[in-house]
Every structure is written in C-alpha cells, then in structure tokens.
Specification:
It contains 16 helices and 23 strands. With about 475 residues, the chain is an alpha/beta fold. It has two domains: about 280 residues, Aldehyde Dehydrogenase, Chain A, domain 1; about 190 residues, 3-Layer(aba) Sandwich (Aldehyde Dehydrogenase, Chain A, domain 2), CATH 3.40.309.10. Helix 4 packs across helix 5. The protein starts with a strand and ends with a strand. About 50% of the residues are buried.
C-alpha cells in the first residue's frame, strides 16, 4: 500500500495533525494508498513556500530559462510514462489505452504547449500624440499573477491538473495544487519530476485533503493565494467563488455540464454512432464535456437508438490492464450510489430503459468495485431531473425532434452551457445551429477534439472565464502598461 504525503517546498510532508485517509481502488474496493491530510499548518507552509519562490530563484529566471525547465518536465514525464499510466489507472480504474493514448500524453503536452505560447505571444504597443508634439510610447508588460491555487478534479486527474499548472508555471507563477481526494497519485508523482529536473523549491506544491474544513477550504480562503482555478461541480465552484470574493481574487472555473448531442438525419450515420458512443460513455461517462442528452431527427431516430444500444451492449468490463477491456468502473462507491439514484429516478419517471439501468455481474473480487451498466433511456419528459441535472455517469437519454428550431430550443433548455456536438453533412446548417447553441465549445462531426490554442470554458452555470492559448495567459498574468513620454 502506497504512503502518500503532501509535497511542500520540494519535500514530502506528513500531516501535522496526524490525520490520514484511505484511497480505495474503484475496480475492487481494495485500499491502495494511505494519504496524509493537510491541515491549516500544511496549507500555510505550502502557500508561504510558493510566495517565497516568486522572489527567489524562480522569479529571477528569464523566460527562455523557464521554458527550458518546462520542456524538461514534459520529457521526464515521458521518461516515466509507465509510472504515470499506472498511477492514473490505480486512481481511476479506467482502461490502460485511455491513459496511455490520451490522458497522460496530453498531460505532458500541456507543459510544452504553454511553454511555446509564452515565448511567442506578443503584447500591445501604441504611439500616442501629445500637445507638445513629441508624443509618448505605451507598451504592455505581462507579469505573473502570483500564487495560484489549483483545485483539480478526479475524472481526468493528470490532464486537467497540468492544464492549469502548465500555463501557470509558464507565466512565472507558483502553484499550490489540491487534487481530489479520489485521485492524489499523479499530482504526487509530478512532485518527484519537479525535483528531478531542478524546478526550484516552492514553485510546485501539493496539499491533500477534502473540501469543507479541510485542505480545499483552507487553500481557497488563504489571503496569500492570488488567484484560483477550479474544475469540478457547480456547487463546489459557487462555494469557492464566495471564498475568492474575500480579497477580490481572480477565478477561472470549468464546472458542470448537461451537454446535448444533436444528430440530423443527413449525418454520416456510422460516424455519428461512434461519436455519440464516445461522448456518452468514454471514461465511464465521467467527462464534463460528455453527452447525457441526445436529440435525433425523427427519420433516423429508431435506427439510431437500435445501433447505439448494440454498441453499448458490446462493451467489455474488466481491470484496466486486461486485454480488450474498454469500460471501467466509476470513481468510487459513493459516486456509484449517486449514479444509481438517477437510474432509479429514470425508472420512477417512466423512462423506457433501452439497455442497462443497473449493476453488472462481475466475477470474484471485482464484484466489490464501483461498477454500473452503461445505460440508454427514451420517453422521459424534459422536466425530469434525469434530463435537467448532471449525472456524471455512463448514460444518455435519446429524444426525437422534427425541426431545427425545436432542437435548438431543447439544447438550450438547461442551466448548463458547457459543450455540444452536432452531426450533419450540411455545412450551412452546422454553422447556423452552432451559432445558436449557448455553450462554450461546439463540435461538428467530432467530439473531444481540442486545439490547446483555442478558448475553452463554459457558459451559464458551466463556468466563468476562458483558458487555452493566449486566453490562459490573460488569466495567469497581469497586464501592466508602461507609458514613456518622448
């Protein structure tokens, strides 16, 4: 069993209050790690170390020196690729191919992409006329925002944590990371990488624990944290935003989603089936950008439901490293109870259960894992909680529609506005519908295709702020203006 401590000022630190908590495998419910819970003293130490590093060796590095170090971080992650894959599989229980082909490579790429951006994105400059005719020159200077509190989620822990840490460090900030209590392993492993490549002490810190009255609250309320970036559920984001208002700290949040998939009858049918299958069931449905509401144009509806049912019923359950496995458990027993409560609610509300709706029979010790069946429903009213609330599980409801106007109205009838995916071979229609769906990102004939240079974030209760490319620089730096009189 692994012993995981906090990572503060380049060293691994136990809990001063002596509290530890268990991390259980979602695959079979075994205890796989004992985690040191950070109290207020550890959070204070981490923030102090991060603040001190801003004016120390890290703060004195030139941009090209910082960039070189971040490239070394990415290269060391790649060198220890198998360690990161194993750690992420242990935390999440998801199949090995998902970790090795998507989540870990993207995590390493986050350091190189943002290192390149900070080298190449210009600031502004203006010449202005003055009454004496000599003029003045104004130019912008980017400076680090300071100590960044990073509150990371459990569904793609390494990818989403480095999506924040990469640009924060590229811009010259220091970070204190609070990973989810469900997925602490890769954040800790990254501390070893930071030490290996020579990132100065205090630049990268990790505190483990929970939210209220634990590490999360202590971090987000800390007066020396200059900005907070968060990915997770909307309720938690709201609490963090209230904490950040004390001191008027800047925030960037990506929160919940109840995302719609829109399938027109003229689409490439097989590609639409594959795309909606991925968007609804990848990572066992535990993707903020995932599709839980599917609207299919009526002429294709029956065929679409039947084809998606067939694909779902051919998933292979098992351990992450088992040959051919493409479907893992949910993150925890607690989350499984939440998802199963929505399965029960759908039945209570009169849903037609196309497939799934329960717990699969698993052999031996796997029966103790957090498994649920991938599930498809039809025939629910749009007012049902199953349609309106984020479930964050492997499920979707499919409803027919008749007109473009109708489906736009259905897609927008949500408090959330994170993403949507549209499937059609009519490019004019694709542009027209994409412009009218109230979300942060729309995919056409694709899903989860991310150019890291583009703006990313949610509308409505799905988030505030944008990250990616220059938009990340706008959050992780302060722009100052220098005015020089000629």
């Amino acid at each position: 069993m692994r012993q995981i401590d906090n990572f503060i000022n380049g060293e691994f630190v136990a809990s001063s209050v002596g509290r530890r908590f268990e991390k259980r495998s979602p695959v079979d419910n075994r205890v796989i790690a004992s985690i040191a819970e950070a109290g207020q003293p550890e959070v204070d130490q981490a923030v102090t170390a991060a603040k001190r590093a801003l004016t120390g060796e890290w703060g004195k590095l030139a941009t090209n020196e910082r960039v070189d170090l971040l490239y070394q971080v990415a290269d060391e992650i790649t060198r220890r690729f198998d360690d990161f894959v194993d750690a992420e599989m242990a935390d999440t229980g998801q199949p090995q191919h998902v970790m090795s082909q998507v989540f870990i490579p993207r995590g390493a790429a986050n350091f190189k992409v943002f290192a390149d951006i900070i080298k190449n994105v210009p600031t502004e400059s203006f010449h202005m006329d003055t009454p004496d005719g000599r003029g003045a020159l104004n130019y912008g200077v980017r400076v680090p925002k300071g100590v960044i509190g990073v509150v990371a989620p459990w569904n793609a822990p390494f990818l989403l944590m480095t999506w924040k840490v990469g640009p924060a460090l590229a811009c010259g900030n220091t970070v204190v990371v609070k990973p989810s209590e469900e997925s602490p392993l890769t954040a800790t492993l990254l501390g070893e990488v930071m030490n290996k490549v020579g990132i100065p002490k205090g630049v990268y810190n990790v505190i483990n624990g929970f939210g209220p009255d634990s590490a999360g609250e202590f971090l987000t309320r800390h007066k020396d944290v200059d900005a907070i970036t968060f990915t997770g559920e909307t309720r938690t984001g709201s609490a963090i935003m209230k904490a950040a208002s004390d001191g008027i700290r800047d925030v960037s949040f990506e929160m919940g989603g109840k995302n719609a998939g829109i399938v027109f009858a003229d689409c490439d049918f097989d590609k639409a089936i594959d795309g909606i299958f991925r968007s609804a069931f990848l990572n066992t449905g535990q993707v903020c950008l995932g599709t839980e509401r599917v609207y299919v144009e009526r002429p294709a509806f029956d065929r679409f439901v039947a084809a998606l049912k067939e694909k779902v019923e051919n998933v292979k359950f098992g351990r992450p490293t088992d040959n051919g496995v493409n479907y893992g458990p949910l993150i925890s027993q607690e989350h499984r109870q939440k998802v199963l409560s929505y399965y029960a609610k759908a039945k209570e509300d009169g849903a037609t259960i196309v497939t799934g709706g329960g717990v699969p029979e698993m052999p031996g010790e796997l029966a103790e894992g957090a498994w649920v069946q991938p599930t498809i429903w039809t025939d629910l009213q749009e007012s049902s909680a199953v349609i309106q609330e984020e479930i964050f599980g492997p499920c979707c409801h499919i409803r027919p529609f008749d007109t473009e106007e109708e489906v736009i109205e259905l897609a927008n009838a949500s408090d959330y506005g994170l993403s949507t995916t549209i499937w059609t071979d009519n490019l004019t229609r694709a542009h027209r519908v994409a412009a009218k769906v109230d979300v942060g990102i729309t995919w056409v004939n694709s899903w989860f295709l991310r150019d890291l240079r583009t703006a990313f974030g949610g509308a409505k209760t799905s988030g505030i702020g944008r990250e990616g490319g220059v938009h990340s620089l706008e959050f992780y730096t302060e722009m100052r203006n220098v005015c020089i009189k000629m």
